[in-house]
Request: fold
Amino acid sequence: MTERNRKTNFHLLSAVLDEEAKVVSVIKALAYAASFMSFAIGVKSWLWSHTAHASALFLFCALMLMNVISYNRTLNQQLFKTLFLWLVGLLFLYLIAGGGESNTGILWFYVFPPFVFYVAGLRTGSWMLIIMVALIAIIFRFPELPWVRTVYNLDFQLRFAATVSFVSVFAFVMDHSRRKARQELINMARLYEKAARTDELTQLPNRRDMQQQLEKEYFRYKRHGSHFSVILLDIDHFKMINDTYGHDAGDFVLMKISELLVNACRKMDMAARWGGEEFLIQLPDTSLVQALTLAERLRKSIEASPLQYKNQDISYTISCGVCSISQAKDLASLLKQADVNLYQAKIKGRNMVIPLVVQKASEDEPV
Reply:
């Protein structure tokens, strides 16, 4: 995967995951628009001596603006969206119960279904829509209630119910499709991002990912003094394995050694395919002696455990170069010294760990 593709996938993932902020931006824009319209209609109603209706619209305008101001101070997205939906819902109920200007207030309800699904989601939006429809049914059925100031004839009620049902179902289907497509984009972007950081054959982190992890570990070392070490290992005579048993056998060896490295590492450690038949192990909070111990254990385990591939035993060994950050001035010199140590292990006969692991008479610990 090219660097350009990796950057494209990263930006795609960031853009998709940033949708929550976009929803809030849309709500803020709608809040300002609703405040302006309610204020303008309120002024008109006031001039026409509909003071009660004008006062209700002015109150809605004030509460809507207060919600926006509160969000700008607290940045609480969930509270902002919840209060906004409640205010809009109460306004619609007021317009339906009171009739609004020329008994047309009920027509504003058609914007509610698509909007509530977009803001609140399918499940919460459905419940809010059901509650609103139930309250509207009460207004239709009991026009004599003290807070209901208008009457809708049966023909209008039936047409309104039919058209609102159509709009609600259509809005649900459209928002469901939008959210499904969004999730598919997220999954695809995550797969591409994982592919950019993972070696396809061994499924270990690749060199790019390991480099980033090393930089993070080095930053932790500089800030907190947490020492760490690395093991750079190489499969001895790997070309001979390919030439003798075939490239499929070589791939089999790479996969098996990858499994062995993962099983040998702690949860905090990280093993990666560094390139070709080279692997790198990052060991946080690990001294040079501890890293040498692990490297020697790996070397002995691999030497004593030949692999079987298509009824053929494949014996192979590894050479290891070990280095601790305490022996290097920076990350680049750490990796360079590990590479130098690995080279020394190769030219001195392979199947060894450099620095050399010297064993005492009764102990099996490096010194």
About this structure: DSSP finds twelve helices and seven strands in the chain. Residues 154-197 form the longest helix (44 residues). The first strand starts at residue 228 and ends at 235.
